[in-house]
TrEMBL record:
NCBIfam families: dapB. Its EC number is 1.17.1.8. This is 4-hydroxy-tetrahydrodipicolinate reductase. Keywords: Amino-acid biosynthesis, Cytoplasm, Diaminopimelate biosynthesis, Lysine biosynthesis, NAD, NADP, Oxidoreductase. The lineage of its organism: Bacteria, Bacillati, Bacillota, Bacilli, Bacillales. Pfam families: DapB_C (PF05173), DapB_N (PF01113). GO terms for biological process: diaminopimelate biosynthetic process; lysine biosynthetic process via diaminopimelate. It comes from Calditerricola satsumensis. Pathway: Amino-acid biosynthesis; L-lysine biosynthesis via DAP pathway; (S)-tetrahydrodipicolinate from L-aspartate: step 4/4. The keyword Ribonucleoprotein does not apply. Homotetramer.
């Protein structure tokens, strides 16, 4: 007897990441793609809309209706910072497991959603970055910050990105803050001649956000010490790099009974 495929809904299925997720779902035989949700469309076939040919899977604009009618096991969300929190709440309240790549949730919001998941006994995954290389970059940066506490983060993204700094930069900073005693870097008397010149201040160090057409998703974590520099860099050159992590999360969330924040919690 074969296991039943995991029924998956995709919120933001018409977007840059949503399209990649749809491609992934139709390629893997243990996934059944049951409904696409996107604020921009209703009724039309997802496949023909995004150039994959007829899939017989509809786009539904209303999330509640999509979950009630198509009864997915998992909701994958790649939408917007403004929409994601409500989407996770709606999913958890219906016993649908969220797998969330959308960034923009604060640490407090993630904690609140984790409490909700626990109350409902529903598993979930929120990961600001599903690329294994980016997860390693964050881990290596945390290791380095213990010994080289002078650090600055530069994240670089395409110019259609809505949030700054990126979710990855914020998670990198959270990890660094856990191991780095808080002190304010730079000269005590430094002044910004142009507001924002020194970047966003987080726990004593800075995050800088670059937005340019041509970029996909990139980050450098720079460490400075006496007579030496260390740079840890990750480049996402294509959105396909996020898909193995998304697939892992969809499979693993079926066995979770709590909400986890970060792909690292699903890796050996
Ligand atoms: N965790 C990860 O590995 C990654 C996360 N991201 C994040 O994923 C999110 C989406 O990124 P992109 O795909 O580049 O954006 P996008 O703008 O290409 O796609 C977003 C889609 O969501 C739809 N949408 C907006 N509001 C909605 C709502 N209320 N209900 C349903 N659909 C809605 C839009 O119509 C659009 O089709 C961003 O927050 C981005 O930072 C992006 C890449 C990797
Ligand atoms: O918007 C993007 O593109 C990306 N968003 C995520 C983030 O904010 O960190 C992940 C990756 O950097 C791509």
């Amino acid at each position: 007897m074969t296991d039943k495929p995991i029924r998956v809904a995709v919120a933001g299925a018409k977007g840059r990441m949503g399209r990649e997720v749809v491609k992934l779902l139709v390629q893997e035989s243990d996934f059944a793609f049951v409904v696409g949700i996107d604020a921009r469309l209703d009724g039309v076939d997802v496949g023909t809309t995004i150039g994959l040919g007829e899939l017989g899977v509809p786009f539904v604009r209303d999330l509640e209706r999509a979950l009630d009618v198509y009864k997915p096991d998992v909701l994958v969300d790649f939408t917007t910072p403004a929409a994601v929190r409500r989407h996770v709440e709606v999913a958890l309240d219906r016993g649908v497991r969220p797998v969330v790549g959308t960034t923009g949730l604060s640490e407090a919001e993630v904690e609140e959603l984790a409490r909700r998941a626990q109350m409902r006994g529903v598993g979930g995954v929120i990961a600001p970055n599903f690329a294994i290389g980016a997860v390693l970059m964050m881990k290596f940066a945390q290791m380095a910050a213990k010994y080289l506490p002078h650090v600055e983060i530069i994240e670089l993204h395409h110019d259609q990105k809505l949030d700054a700094p990126s979710g990855t930069a914020l998670k990198t900073a959270e990890g660094i803050q856990r191991v780095r005693a808080e002190f304010r870097q730079g000269h005590p008397d430094e002044t910004e001649l142009l507001e924002g010149a020194r970047g966003a201040y987080v726990g004593g160090f800075r995050i800088h956000s670059v937005r340019l057409p041509g970029l996909v998703a990139h980050q450098e974590v720079l460490f400075g010490g006496e007579g030496q520099l260390l740079t840890i860099r990750h480049d996402a050159l294509s959105r396909s790099c996020f898909m193995p992590g998304v697939a892992l999360a969809i499979r693993r969330v079926m066995t979770l009974d709590r909400l986890v924040y970060g792909l690292e919690h699903l890796l050996d």
